[in-house]
Design goal:
two-stranded antiparallel sheet, mainly beta, disordered N terminus, globular
Length: 371
């Protein structure tokens, strides 16, 4: 069924690009189906002190973008995602969310990550207003991937919160719904999205009619500096809210990309008893530098740190308090705009009042290929 849907979407887009808009007076660029994508590869070695554990080659992610502009207003995009994401069961994380277990099933799955229509409502030098509806990118995760250019190395910790919050997932990078984006003088940007809340991996299994609301504001007082505030509010059960909000700042230029975010959140387990709520905090920071201007060769230096903690008095939660610290750093080489490779080393420290302390570290060789 998945394969049939994928081939059907590709076929329809190809037929449309060839058969419609054949007016000779029309702009030829409107009739072009844009195809692009990228592939992440890596070699990983798990380390535990002097002991070497599992190692091997992986292709963590593959993306294929199909984009079609119909006219000055309408644009369509389909993005297919490939990775080792097969589910072999369910688990309940520390917030009480039931999620599919992602296992190394030794086979790749291809699924639709984005599939939406975008309308440009206003577009001039002062104001830009756009809307999307369908299976859309949510406003927070992709924004920080773009501003940091760090995704080929690792996920940001809003997307990868499970690493720091003992299995707690706080956001999804894509979901079904609608979104508005407003930009004023290219200095201030506002985004709002209304989505189902279950995420792109559960588009056909909405658990409750309550929806998730996203809010994001970004202010750029001068070029390259971005001051950001954001929030996600999800009504996941009758009378119960799962909310997080955060703020941060980032610097984005060709030479240096760096930033920091602080997030705090609460999931209501009992709306009448605050002592039974689960509270969590997350701090992340990153840097990603290109040393070509200083060394005359495109050497990349990058790193990331994350600190997460949560506290709960809920009897059913296996652990009442955890603290996790993860840091990483590496160096790479950018051959051109289409290819870069690098090495990456991560340190991980986990403290749990029930399970005790755990430490681990890993070594990677990573690469990104674009087409």
């Amino acid at each position: 069924m998945k394969r049939s849907s994928i081939f059907l979407c590709i076929s329809l887009l190809f037929i449309y690009s060839q058969g419609f808009g054949s007016d000779k007076k029309a702009d030829k660029t409107k009739n072009i189906l844009e195809v692009s994508g990228y592939i992440y590869t890596q070699f990983s070695q798990q380390l535990d002190g002097k002991t070497r554990k599992e190692y091997g080659f992986q292709v963590p992610r593959m993306y294929l973008h199909l984009k079609k502009r119909i006219d000055k207003i309408w644009r369509f995009q389909f993005t297919f995602d490939g990775g080792i994401l097969s589910s072999s069961g369910d688990y309940t994380d520390s917030l009480g969310n039931t999620n599919a277990i992602e296992t190394d099933s030794k086979r790749y799955e291809i699924f639709l990550k984005y599939g939406y229509a975008e309308a440009t409502i206003i577009n001039n030098e002062k104001i830009s207003l756009k809307s999307k509806f369908g299976l859309i990118d949510t406003p927070i995760i992709l924004y920080f991937n773009q501003i940091s250019n760090y995704r080929w190395i690792d996920k940001n910790y809003i997307d990868n919160a499970t690493k720091l919050l003992s299995g707690i997932q706080i956001d999804n990078s894509a979901d079904v719904g609608g979104r508005l984006d407003l930009s004023i003088y290219k200095r201030t940007a506002f985004s709002y999205a209304l989505v189902n809340g279950e995420g792109f991996k559960n588009v056909a299994s909405e658990t409750y009619r309550g929806k998730a609301h996203y809010f994001k504001v970004s202010i750029s007082p001068f070029r390259k500096l971005y001051i950001n505030g954001f929030a996600r509010v999800e009504f996941y059960e009758p009378g119960k809210v799962n909310i997080f909000y955060g703020m941060g700042a980032a610097w984005k230029s060709y030479k240096v990309k760096t930033g920091i975010n602080y997030i705090t959140g609460t999931k209501e387990i009992d709306s009448k008893d605050e002592d039974k709520n689960i509270d969590y905090t997350l701090l992340e920071a990153w840097f990603n530098c290109n040393l070509k201007s200083a060394l005359a060769i495109p050497i990349l230096v990058y790193g990331q740190i994350g600190l997460g903690s949560y506290e709960s008095k809920v009897p059913d939660v296996k652990s009442s308090s955890t603290e996790t610290f993860r840091s990483a750093a590496g160096m790479g080489y950018k051959f051109n705009s289409k290819m870069k490779v690098g090495v990456y080393y991560t340190w991980f420290s986990y403290k749990d009042v029930v399970e005790g302390d755990q430490d681990s570290n890993d070594f990677y060789v990573k690469s990104e290929f674009r087409f």
